[in-house]
C-alpha cells in the first residue's frame, strides 16, 4: 500500500474549518468538495495516460491524454457523495459508479446495501471516495469488492484517517496495487470507533441530519 498524507497549509486550513463543530452544512459541503480537488491532484499522479500529438497555431506539440478504459470514480454512499463533484471537476471524463455502505455502529462491521458499477472492471483504475477512514472496515470491503470484479489498481481519497484503520487496510491489501491519499492522519479511534479529534459523523455533517 502506498500512503500519501497531504502536507500543505491550504489543505490543513480547510480541514481545520471542516473539523470545527460550529461549521454549518453548506460550508462543510463546499469545503469537502474543495479538499477533494486538492487531494485528487496527488491521487491522480499515476493515472494512465498515452502520448498524443496536437497541432497548435504554431506547430506540432507532443502531450498526454487519459487512456482508455477511463478511470472509474466510486463514491461510497452516503458521505462519499459529498466528494464526487470535487473529483469530477478535475477528471471530467471519468466514469462514475456507486457503492452504498453503512457501518453497523454496534459491531463496526460494514454492510453493502447498494451497488451500481460496471459488471466488468477488468483492467480498470478505480478512485474510491470516502471522507472517513476509521477502523478501515468499509474501505477494505470496498477495495475487495472492486478487485473481485477485476480492477487492477485502486486509489482511495479520504479526508481524515485513523492510524488503526490505515494499518488494517495495509494488512488486508498485501500484494495489491492500493494507494491511500489522506488530508490528515489523526491520533486514534475512540471506544465507539470515531476518529479523534476527527470531525464527527461526516454523513450527518454533510447532509444536515444533526
Ligand atoms: C462512515 C464513513 C465511512 C465509514 C468509516 O460511513 O463515511 O464509510 O463510516 O468507518 P470504518 O472505517 O470504521 O468502516 P457511515 O457508515 O457512517 O455511513 P454514511 O456515509 O451513510 O453516514
Ligand atoms: N464515520 C464517521 O463519519 N466519522 C468517524 O469518526 C468514524 C466513522
CATH architectural label: 3-Layer(aba) Sandwich
Ligand species: 1-O-pyrophosphono-5-O-phosphono-alpha-D-ribofuranose, uracil
**What is the string of SSEs from the N terminus onward?**
EHHEEEHEEEEEHEHEEEH
Largest sheet geometry: 9 strands, mixed
Mean pLDDT: 96
Unreliable stretches: none
Number of strands: 13
Distance between the termini: 35 Å
3D structure, described in words:
There is one protein chain. This protein is α/β, with parallel strands linked by helices and 210 residues long. It has a single domain, classed as Rossmann fold. The strands form three sheets. Strands 1, 4, 5, 6, 7, 8, 9, 10 and 11 form a nine-stranded mixed beta sheet that branches. Helix 4 links the parallel strand 9 and strand 10. Helix 1 runs antiparallel to helix 2 and helix 2 runs parallel beside helix 3. The longest helix has 19 residues. The chain starts with a strand and ends with a helix. The protein binds 1-O-pyrophosphono-5-O-phosphono-alpha-D-ribofuranose and uracil. Uracil (URA) binds next to helix 6.
Write a short abstract of this structure.
This protein is of the alpha/beta class.
Features:
Rossmann fold; single chain; alpha/beta; 31% helix; binds 1-O-pyrophosphono-5-O-phosphono-alpha-D-ribofuranose; 9-stranded mixed beta sheet; binds uracil; 13 strands; 210 residues
Amino acid at each position: 500500500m502506498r500512503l500519501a498524507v497531504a502536507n500543505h497549509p491550504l489543505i490543513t486550513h480547510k480541514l481545520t474549518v471542516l473539523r470545527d463543530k460550529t461549521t454549518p452544512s453548506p460550508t462543510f459541503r463546499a469545503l469537502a468538495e474543495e479538499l477533494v480537488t486538492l487531494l485528487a491532484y496527488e491521487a491522480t499522479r499515476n493515472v494512465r495516460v498515452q502520448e498524443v500529438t496536437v497541432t497548435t497555431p504554431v506547430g506540432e506539440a507532443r502531450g498526454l491524454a487519459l487512456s482508455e478504459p477511463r478511470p472509474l470514480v466510486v463514491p461510497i454512499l452516503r458521505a462519499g457523495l459529498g466528494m464526487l463533484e470535487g473529483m469530477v471537476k478535475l477528471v471530467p471524463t471519468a466514469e462514475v459508479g456507486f457503492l452504498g455502505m453503512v457501518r453497523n455502529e454496534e459491531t463496526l462491521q460494514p454492510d453493502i446495501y447498494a451497488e451500481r458499477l460496471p459488471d466488468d472492471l477488468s483492467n480498470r483504475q478505480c478512485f474510491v471516495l470516502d471522507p472517513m477512514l476509521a477502523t478501515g472496515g468499509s474501505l477494505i470491503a470496498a477495495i475487495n469488492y472492486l478487485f473481485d470484479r477485476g480492477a487492477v489498481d485502486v486509489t482511495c481519497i479520504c479526508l481524515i484517517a485513523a492510524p488503526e484503520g490505515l494499518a488494517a487496510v495495509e494488512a488486508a491489501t498485501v500484494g495489491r496495487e492500493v494507494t491511500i491519499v489522506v488530508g490528515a492522519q489523526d491520533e486514534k479511534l475512540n471506544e465507539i470507533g470515531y476518529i479523534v479529534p476527527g470531525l464527527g459523523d461526516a454523513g450527518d455533517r454533510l447532509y444536515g441530519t444533526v
